[in-house]
Automatic annotation (TrEMBL):
Official protein name in the record: Uncharacterized protein
Superkingdom assignment: Bacteria
Length: 49
C-alpha cells in the first residue's frame, strides 16, 4: 500500500511477444477487458498495430 491505496496488477499479452504490466489504484474500478480495449484503441490510433 502506497499513498493510502492498494494497487491492482493487470498483465496484458500483446500478440504473444510482449507483456505490459500496469499498477492502478483500486478506486479506478476498471476491469481487464476495458483496459485491453483502451490499450488496443490507443495503439491503433498511434499506428502501432
Amino acid at each position: 500500500m502506497k499513498n493510502g491505496w492498494t494497487k491492482n496488477r493487470i498483465e496484458v499479452e500483446i500478440k504473444g511477444v510482449k507483456t505490459l504490466r500496469l499498477e492502478l489504484p483500486d478506486g479506478l474500478n476498471l476491469n481487464e477487458q476495458a483496459l485491453q480495449m483502451t490499450l488496443a484503441v490507443k495503439l491503433y490510433e498511434a499506428g502501432q498495430c
